[in-house]
Amino acid sequence: MKRFVISFVLAFFSLTTGYSQYFSTGQEPASIRWRQINTKHFQLIYPEDYEEKAQQVAFVFEKVYAYGSKSLKHEPRKISIILHTHTVKSNGLVAWSPKRVELFTTPHQAIYAQDWLEQLAIHEFRHVVQMDKIQQELPDILPILFGEQAAAVAVGAYLPFWFIEGDAVVTETALSKAGRGRLPSFLMENKAQLLEKGAYSFNKASLGSYKDFVPNRYKFGYWMVGGTRQKFGSQVWENVISEIAKRPLSITPVDRVLKRETGMNQAGLYRSLFNDYQKEWSREVADIKIYKVKEITARQPFFTRYTQAYALNDSTWIALKESRVDLSRIVRLTSKSEELVTTPGAIFKESFSGRGNQLIWSERRPDIRWTHADRSVIVVYNSETNEKQVFEHENKLFSPTISPSFKQFAAIEVDHSNHYSLSIFDLQNGQLLQQFKLPGNPYLLTPCWDDSGNSLFFVTQSSEGKKLTSLDVMTGHSKVLMDGHFHEIRNPYFADDKLYFTGSFSGIDNIYQLDLNSKLTKQLSSVPFGADYPASIGGGLVFSNYNSDGFQLVQLHQNEMVNKELDSTIFKTYPLAEKLASQELGIPDFSEKEHAVFETKPYRKLAHLFNFHSWAPAYIDAAEEDVKPGVSLFSQNKLGTAETRLGYEYDWADETGKYIAGFKYSGWFPVFDAEVSYRKPSAHYWLIENTIDQESGAIIASDTTKQRFSWKELNIDASVYLPLQFSQGKYTQYVRPKIDYAYQNIAHTTDTPHEFYEGYYHSVTYQLYLQNMLRQAELDLRPRWGQALELTFRYGLKGGSDVGDLSAVQAYLFVPGFMQNHGTRFYYGYQKRNQGAAFTFGNIVRSPHGYKSFQNNEIYTLSADYAMPLAYPDWSLGRWIFLKRLRANFFYDYAHATGNLYSQEGQVAGTFSTDMQSIGVDLMGDGHFLRLLTPVSLGLRTAFLPKSQKAYFQLLFSVDFDSL
C-alpha cells in the first residue's frame, strides 16, 4: 500500500510539464483550421490541408485495430488521434490524462523499410491497447475516484517502461515485413555491449548509466519482451497487464506473474535471456570471417560516434562527432589528430555532408511562438573562411548535399501534406531551381551526386520497402538500380562509377558496392556489429564501425575488402521476429489506403474548449508539488491549448476550505492564465475578560481567553505573457515578457475584530525574462556558457490599500568549469522595496543559503556555485535504490540588506544594515527508487555562516520529471 501511495504521487507529477497541469506537447499556430474524421474506433483531428493523408491514416488505424489487439486480448475503446503536420519533429506518443494519440507526421531520414505513418500507427496503437486494458480492468472504484489518471498512475507505478516500449517494438515487428526487430542497427547495441563488456546488472540495463552507454528502453525492451514471448508464449505479458490492473494495491505484480509463468522475477528473467543471447551471439560472430580495419579514430573513454565522414584528401577527413560528454561537433581528422571545425545546432539525423571546404547540414529552428510550427534550415559553412549562410524554405528540407560544381545543393523536401520531392537549390542564395516528384510519392532518403552533377542517387521508401534509385536532373527521369525490398539500404555514396551504400543483407550492417556499369553488387566489409556511412577515395574505403563505445572512423584498403558478390538466396532472416509474427494474426493489408473515403467535418476549437478527464478526492497542486484534503477536477482540450483546474482544498488547522478555479489558454499568440480563489480562513487572538465589582467598580478578577475569528478572502490573479523562442545554432534563446494583475479583497464576518484589516488591494507586475544558453551535453551538470536576466517591477494600483512597490533584477552567468562536464554559475540579485501602509510585497531576490527570507527595504545578493561530478558508481541496493552518480555543488553567498526597525506599536523606530555570508557544499546522489523510471536526487546541504559561527544542514530532494 505504501508503494502504491508513493508511486501514485510520483506518477501523477510525472505527467506535468513546466507550464501544464498535465502533459502537453505544445500548440499549432492559431491560424490553422482543423477537421475531424470519426470512424468506429478512432477520432482523427488534423489540419484541413492534410485531408488526403488523414483519410489514409484513418484507414490504417482501423486496419491495425484487430491485429494490434490480439495478443493482449483486449479491444480498446474509441480514442482521439491528433496529427501534427506543420512541425519537423518525427515521433508519436500516447498520453492518458487526457487520453489521446499524437502523431508527428514528418518522416525522418533514418526510418526503416516501412511507410512512416504505418510504422506510427502500429507502434502507437499498441500503447493504446496497453493503457486501455489497464483502465478497463482496474477495480471500478479507481476510475470512479480518479478518472483517466488512474490508469496512468498504475502504469507509472508498476509497468516497466522497457516493457511498454519493448512490447510496441515487438508488435511493429510482428505485424510487418520490417520493424525494428529486423533492423541490424537497432539490434547491434545490445549485442556489442554483451559480447565486449558482458552483462550489466538488471538495474543498470533497465535504468541506464552515466558511466557507460546502455541501449535505450526500446532496444532492451525488445529483447526482454520478445525473448519472453519466444520462450514462454505471448500470454505472459497479457497476464502481467491484467495482474497490474486487477490488483493495483499489490507490491510486485510484475514479478508475481513472471514467477508464475516463467519461474523467475524480472532480474532473473533478464539474466536467463541475456545468457542465452550471449551464447547465441558469440556463435554468430565466431562464424563470421571478420576483415580487419585500420582505425582513424581511437576508442574514447565515453560513448562517441564519428559518422558521415567525407574526404578532404588522402589523409584528412571531415566528420560529425557526437558524444555524451560534449556537444555535437564537426571535426577535421587525420590518423594522428583531431581539430574542431565548427559546432552545429540541433542537427537532423543523416543530414550532414560536405565537399571540399564547403560543409552543409540541416538543423531544427523553433518557431518564435508555436511549438508545432518549428522548421528546418539549411546551413552552409566554409571551413576555410568560417563564413556561414543560412537558408530557410517554406517547406521542410533534410539531408542536403552539395553538387560537384559548388553551384547547387540538393535536399529532400517535405511539405505540410507529406508530399515528397527531391529539390535542387542555388548554393549562393538558396533559391529553388528544380523540383522532382516521383510516381507514387515514395519517401526519399539521403541523396548524393555523381561526379558530373547530372545525376543524383538516393533511396526511396514506400509500402514496398526500400529501393536504390537514380535521377537524371536534366530529363527528370528516375530508375530503380536495386530493390532491397524490406532489407535495409541507406546512405549511398558515389565514387568512380560505383555506388557505395550500407546494407543489412547479412544480418549485420555492412558496406556494399554497386558497379553502375556491370550492375554487380558486392559486399566490401565484414564487421562483427555494424558498419555505416561509407565514403571512398583512391579506391579505398572509409566508414563508421560500431563497437560498444560508439562508432569509430576506420579505413579499409582495396586489397583488404571482402569483394563478395551479393547472393539474394542467402539473405539473413530473423528467427525471433518470425516467431513473434507467428503469434499474431498476420500482417495487415494497407494496399487500399489510397482509396479510403471517410466522412469529414470541421473541428471547432471553441466547441471543444473543455475536456474533463481526471479528478481526485484530494486537492492536488502540481505547481507546489503538494497534496491536501479536498477535491480536484482537471480539463485539458485535445489540441493542448486550454487547461482548466477546479478544486476545493480543506485546511485541517483552520477547519475551513478554499475554492479554486483556474484557466489557461495557449491558443493565441499571447498566453492567458487566470485563477480565482475564495476562502474563509481563521485565526485566534487572546481576550482579557475582567470581572468588575458592581459597587466599587474595581477589577476583582481577570481571565484570558483564546478567541477564534474568521474573515472572507477573495483572490484573483490574471496574467498574460509571450513565451518567445529565438534559438539558433548551438544556443537556446528565450524571451518572456509578462504582465500580471493581482487582486485581494478581505471582508469581515460577524466574529471578526473591528481592528482587523478590511478592504482590498490590487497590483500590477511587469516582468521580462531573457535567456541565452549554450546547449548542454548529456553529462553536463550546467550549461558551459550562458546568461539569464529577469527584470521585475510590481506596484499597487490606486483605489485600494497602499501596498507600495518593488523593483528587482536577477542575473545569472554560466561559465565552464576546470574540467569537462563541470560548471560554474554566478548569481546577482538586487531588490528595492517601498513599504506600503497596509501590506508589503514579498521578496523576489533570494537570501544566502541558511538565512530565512525577511522584510527589508533594499538587498543585493552575490553568489557563486561550482558543480562537478564525483563518481559514477552504478551501485544497487536490490530493487530499492540504484545510484548512478555522486556530485557536489560548492557555493559561496554574500548579501547586504537594509531596512526599517519597528517599535511595539508598529511605528518606524530606526533602520538596520546587515551583511550575510554562507559557504558550503551540496553532496548529492542521482539515481532511481523502486526501479521507477523517474530520476530522483537526494543529498545533504552543509553550510557555514561566518557571522553567527554556526553550521546549517538541510536535506535535499528533487524529482527530474523533465528527463522523461
Automatic annotation (TrEMBL):
Gene3D superfamilies, sorted: TolB, C-terminal domain
Organism superkingdom: Bacteria
InterPro entries: 6-blade_b-propeller_TolB-like
This protein's name: WD40 repeat protein
